[in-house]
């Protein structure tokens, strides 16, 4: 992992001086200029960032430094996953691509709506520019709900008006008017809190009232396929090259590797490492979500699907990977054809009250079910949790535990290992 920190070219100067970083990786150091300058008196030498208190424009400068650091780190991680090293010229070129234009200062924007919403849009755009498109979409959705709450209640949302009482009322609005579940409300509150912390770091606000607002999260039930259900899907007769056969291949590859959808569609030839005398064929790539480098051994079945993927045999009509929503729709159709229809409870909590419904299992089948299936079945085969976590790229047991689906049969088998059971 590359280590990045910023320095001033002439910290003792009485005029603006260029900002640069020494990028350290694999024992090498490369000097990369950030394509920005700043007066030393506006620079925090301890935090190695631009001061924002009294210098509101510097928030945009810090955004650029964060974006550049993300670009540099991503490029180094991509090369590390491929077993190569970036050139100095390649890294320096990343600073030549401009960041999105910063929003104007509040004084200049007086006629264009509340400053709060300008800064919120700036946050969403910054997240999107950093490559986190789906996260940016989630931020935008939270903002849309907050705007609708503001309009419905005739309440102006701004940095100074976001009190803990308003936060409580917004949560109640999300529950009673928008009809969201407790987990979704918890996520939206978390996004708004993240925005306020982001804004505080840039000197836009000192309001911390939302820190006192909370909404209980309820852990959802984890659904995974059993060995028999996975076998039914594997043996389902389908025409080779049909849309459902391609969808099954994507899903099975996720079941065999535990990879997220975002990582499946990112597999390139350089990620495939052939078998050696000491190691089996495996994938080595950088996970999109966590940026962690993962090494996933490939079974014969998984390697066969990877070869088809790289040959373009699993692409959609537009020669692109199948999209997540379309794949999820096809999987429900596949699950029904394979007879994966045992009834499962769907429990959603709203205001702490359980809303229980029953549906055939195939209706809840998504590509993420494959990752949970990978974890559940490998634990059932006796693999240690630590080993499975290494394969999935989880860094904490708390996040990993949400994927564990201990079936009644597995619980009974484990109990029998340590206790004498009746005949």
Automatic annotation (TrEMBL):
GO terms for molecular function: DNA binding. The keyword DNA-binding applies. Residues 114-200 form the Core-binding (CB) domain. Keywords: DNA integration, DNA recombination, DNA-binding. GO terms for biological process: DNA integration; DNA recombination. The keyword Lipoprotein does not apply. Residues 218-416 form the Tyr recombinase domain. Pfam families: Phage_int_SAM_5 (PF13102), Phage_integrase (PF00589). InterPro entries: CB, DNA_brk_join_enz, Integrase-like_cat_sf, Integrase_catalytic, Integrase_recombinase_N, SAM-like_dom, Tyrosine_recombinase_XerCD. Belongs to the 'phage' integrase family. This is Site-specific integrase.
């Amino acid at each position: 992992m590359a280590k990045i920190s910023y320095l001033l070219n002439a910290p003792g100067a009485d005029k603006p001086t260029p900002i640069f970083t020494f990028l350290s990786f694999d024992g090498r150091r490369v000097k990369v200029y950030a394509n920005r300058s700043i007066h030393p008196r506006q620079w925090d030498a301890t935090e190695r960032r631009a001061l924002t208190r009294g210098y509101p424009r510097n928030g945009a400068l810090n955004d650029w430094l964060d974006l550049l650091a993300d670009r540099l780190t991503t490029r180094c991680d991509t090369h590390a996953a491929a077993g190569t090293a970036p050139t100095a010229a390649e890294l320096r070129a990343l600073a030549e691509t401009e960041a999105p234009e910063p929003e104007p200062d509040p004084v200049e924007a007086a006629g264009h709506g509340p400053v709060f919403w300008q800064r919120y849009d700036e946050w969403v755009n910054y997240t999107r520019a950093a490559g986190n498109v789906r996260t940016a979409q989630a931020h935008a959705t939270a903002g849309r709900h907050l705007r609708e709450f503001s309009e419905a209640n005739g309440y102006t949302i701004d940095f100074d008006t976001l009190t803990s009482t308003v936060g409580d009322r917004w949560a109640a609005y999300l529950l009673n008017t928008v009809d969201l579940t407790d987990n979704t409300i918890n996520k939206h509150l978390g996004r708004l809190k993240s925005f306020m912390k982001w804004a505080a770091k840039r000197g836009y606000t000192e309001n911390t009232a939302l820190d006192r607002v909370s909404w209980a999260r309820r852990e959802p039930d984890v659904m995974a396929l059993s060995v028999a259900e996975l076998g039914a899907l594997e043996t389902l007769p389908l025409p080779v090259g049909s849309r459902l056969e391609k969808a099954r291949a994507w899903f099975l590859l996720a079941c065999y590797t535990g990879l997220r959808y975002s990582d499946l569609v990112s597999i390139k030839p350089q990620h495939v490492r052939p078998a050696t005398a000491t190691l089996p064929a495996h994938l080595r790539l950088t996970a999109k979500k966590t940026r962690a480098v993962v090494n996933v051994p490939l079974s014969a079945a998984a390697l066969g699907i990877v070869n088809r993927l790289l040959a373009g045999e699993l692409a959609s009509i537009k020669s692109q990977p199948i999209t997540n929503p379309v794949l999820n729709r096809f999987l429900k159709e596949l699950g029904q054809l394979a007879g994966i229809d045992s009834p499962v409870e769907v429990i959603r909590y709203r205001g702490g009250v359980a809303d229980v419904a029953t549906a055939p299992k195939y209706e809840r089948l998504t590509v993420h079910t494959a990752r949970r299936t990978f974890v559940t079945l490998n634990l059932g085969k006796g693999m240690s949790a630590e080993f499975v976590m290494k394969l999935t790229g989880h860094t904490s047991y708390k996040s990993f535990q949400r994927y564990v689906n201990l079936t009644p049969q597995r619980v009974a088998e484990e109990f029998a290992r340590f206790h004498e059971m009746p005949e």
